[in-house]
Amino acid sequence: MYEHILIAFDLGYEEQLPLLIAPARRLLGKRRGKIHFLYVDESQVHHATYPILDEENAKRQQTIALYRLKSLISQYVPEQQQGECMVKHGHADERILEIEKKIKPDFIVMMAGKPGLGQYFMGANTNKVVRHAKSSVIIIRP
């Protein structure tokens, strides 16, 4: 029934990963579908880290983030259900929608927003993805 699920995940909140993976695995069931993972690094969006993060260091940070992402995923998702792991830079909503066009997931699974008082409301990125995604979006509240 479902072949591809995209989980948009922030590595700054590793404790949320099991909350995102659980519904994705239930949707796939015992099928051989894939769960794809996307982390969007927004640290350079406003060039706040530009003076200290040159191109070489940025590539190194991306490699480290990808390694961390794959390491976390291997703890929670059986190998046969592991899809692509991606690390992108930019605005989270834009990159999520860009990857959605590429892999055409049946569902996108993401958190409502960052932890704290704001968790009861949808964050700006989540709101934009819900409004513009062609796929169904599952929003998880912690």
Description:
With 142 residues, the protein is an alpha/beta fold. It has a single domain, classed as HUPs (Rossmann fold), CATH 3.40.50. Helix content is 39%, strand content 22%. The chain has four helices and five strands, in the order E-H-E-H-E-H-E-H-E. A five-stranded parallel beta sheet has the order 3-2-1-4-5, with helices on both faces. Helix 4 links the parallel strand 4 and strand 5. It starts with a strand and ends with a strand. The mean pLDDT is 88.
Shape: globular
List the helices and strands in order: EHEHEHEHE
Radius of gyration: 15 Å
CATH class: Alpha Beta
Number of domains: 1
Strand adjacency order, main sheet: 3-2-1-4-5
- Residue runs with pLDDT of under 50 for 5 or more positions: none
Q: Which terms would index this structure?
A:
single chain, 142 residues, alpha/beta, Rossmann fold, five-stranded parallel beta sheet, 4 helices, globular
Topology:
Elements: E1 4-8, H1 17-28, E2 34-41, H2 55-76, E3 82-89, H3 92-103, E4 107-111, H4 124-132, E5 136-140
Parallel strand pairs: 1-2, 1-4, 2-3, 4-5
Helix pairs in contact: 3-4
Q: Brief overview, please?
A:
By secondary structure, the protein is an alpha/beta fold.
